[in-house]
Amino acid sequence: MKSSQAWCLLILLLALTWGGPGRAGTVHATGAHVYLLRGIFNVSVGLDALADKLRQTGIAATVYGRDEAGAVTAAALAQYQTGARAIILVGHSLGAGAALSVARQLGNSGVPVALVVLLDPVSSAAVPSNVGRAVNFYVSGGLGTTVQAEAGFRGNLANMDFKSAGMDHMSIQAADPIHRQIIGFIRAAVGGAAAGTGHETPGRHATHAAHGNRHPGAAHHQS
Q: Each residue's pLDDT tens digit in the chain (223 positions)?
């Protein structure tokens, strides 16, 4: 094979396997896609690192700005129709509110959301009823807040307080132990073998399970 042909083949292979930074659109073998929404001014660069870690595990991940909720909704709808059956949303700060907005818009179109992960949300918007599981990593006494579920929600909601772990509004979206916990929740949502992992950073949390006896006021330590 001539050297020019070899280079063309290499470029073609790279184009097929690499989606580029922040806009990886390929649905991986898991059939899941994770959409990550940064906070104001795109300062939540820890989400870019998290997206890279997810791609390394074979889970498609795309990072957006918090003002791109409409684009996320359109992409999720299109990919749901073409095989991305596990839609997962992750948002930090104002991006967390944007993630809930995307979930609500998807619900209006009859599309379920497997998991929503919120990182120190500054809005107390409710988790919509089409979400199967919602996990809120927040820091009490700061900018972040707890969230509740809207009427008709039959999934699982956990508010996890990381104040005692020394987290703040920015570190909570960039810390590797937090990333490991999030990846554990995501792998569980897509049926991965690591369901229930991620105990590196013990936070206090309250869980609301639609089919259990816990409620948002029943705080307990993560086990």
A: 444 444 333 333 333 333 333 444 444 446 899 999 999 999 999 999 999 999 999 999 999 999 999 999 999 999 898 876 799 999 999 999 999 999 999 999 999 999 999 999 999 899 999 999 999 999 999 999 999 999 999 999 999 999 999 999 999 999 999 999 999 999 999 984 233 333 333 344 455 444 332 333 333 223 2
Q: Are 115 and 88 in contact (CB under 8 A)?
A: yes
Q: How far is 31 from 79, CA to CA, in rounded Å?
A: 9
Rounded Cα gap, residues 132 and 153, in angstroms: 8
Spatial CA neighbour of 118 closest among 157, 92, 153:
92
The CATH class, in words, for 27-221 is alpha beta
Q: Is the dihedral of CA 46, 50, 52, 53 positive or negative?
A: positive
